[in-house]
User: Which sequence fits this backbone?
């Protein structure tokens, strides 16, 4: 159990340091990942930026993720679920384009007038406040790989064992503080887990440098 995102960020930073994680840049997944990303980036003395992906919801059930798309159009699709639900390919493609636009707009909003950090050849640390299904996380990791990163580490304080294990296929390394066997939602492992506003989240990017 973490007190709040600050406590989780401090524990995550300690875990990253203990595992001798070497990184050139940290990318936080908005919004909840930014408080932790700031702490981890400061611990490693590296710049902080964002990586944004949004889920593709199933027809008639937008909360059920059948995939995710990042701001650059990088996509992860749950082919088994798409087949199981008989989701039409045209629906997937239309949603992919719309979701990519929304993710790109969110990334631009967070960066304001700043350029994205060039990830070519960099060792990148992707940070969030926790993993549930991992759908959005997969889209983010694919975006980082497609940007030419040399090595990608995912760092989160908590996630279910099966989801964390699956994400090892997307990341070169995974750092996770807690992997409880019984998992309902990320928030249950925080004593305080309030919403992080866009304004608050963007404050954590004030020290971004290329």
Assistant:
């Amino acid at each position: 159990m973490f007190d709040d995102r600050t406590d989780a960020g401090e524990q995550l930073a300690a875990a990253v340091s203990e595992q001798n994680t070497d990184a050139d840049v940290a990318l936080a997944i908005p919004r909840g990942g930014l408080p932790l990303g700031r702490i981890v980036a400061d611990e490693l003395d590296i710049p902080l930026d964002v990586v944004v992906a949004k889920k593709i919801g199933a027809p008639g059930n937008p909360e059920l993720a059948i995939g995710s798309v990042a701001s650059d159009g990088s996509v992860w699709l749950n082919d088994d679920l798409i087949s199981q639900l008989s989701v039409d390919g045209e629906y997937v493609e239309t949603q992919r384009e719309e979701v990519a636009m929304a993710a790109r707009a969110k990334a631009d909003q967070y960066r304001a007038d700043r350029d994205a950090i060039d990830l070519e050849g960099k060792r990148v640390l992707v940070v969030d406040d926790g993993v549930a299904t991992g759908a959005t996380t997969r889209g983010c990791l694919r975006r980082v790989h497609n940007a030419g990163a040399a090595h990608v580490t995912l760092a989160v304080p908590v996630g279910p064992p099966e989801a964390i294990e699956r994400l090892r296929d997307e990341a070169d390394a995974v750092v996770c503080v807690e992997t409880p066997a019984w998992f309902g939602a990320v928030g249950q492992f925080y004593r305080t887990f309030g919403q992080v506003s866009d304004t608050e989240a963007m404050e954590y990017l004030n020290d971004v440098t290329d």
Notes: The helical segments are 5-18, 33-44, 79-84, 89-111, 135-146, 161-167, 198-203.
